[in-house]
Amino acid sequence: MKLRRSRASKRGRIEIIPMIDVMFFLLATFMLTSLAMQRLDAVRVNLPQGRAQQMSEDRPLTLSVSRANQVFINQQPVQLRQIEPLVAKLLHRDGNIVVAADDGASHGVVVQAMLEARKAGAEHFLVAVHRE
Are 78 and 112 in contact (CB under 8 A)? Predict the structure, then answer.
């Protein structure tokens, strides 16, 4: 005959819900912190909607095109022919340029400005968008 124990043993449980709460809190904290750290040295333009990764550079070289098709490099107004020498002087070693073009700007002016910057050694263009 088999005897039963008078006290049944219970298996321990790990509660996962508090851990999920902590992870969501950390996620929200890091997202808000990364948004607060974003600095664009650009002229104020209405950016098109889109999804993009967060930038890692502190002060990137910014090429802006306003609605009136005026071109700016780091908030300094320039003509298309002046872009190449100025970008060659200011370009970081990684070759990244942030393009912040107003959604009402002429596509041709934006492309011409990017081509002039490419002549100066720009390798990668990061397009600035307004986060949804």
Answer: no
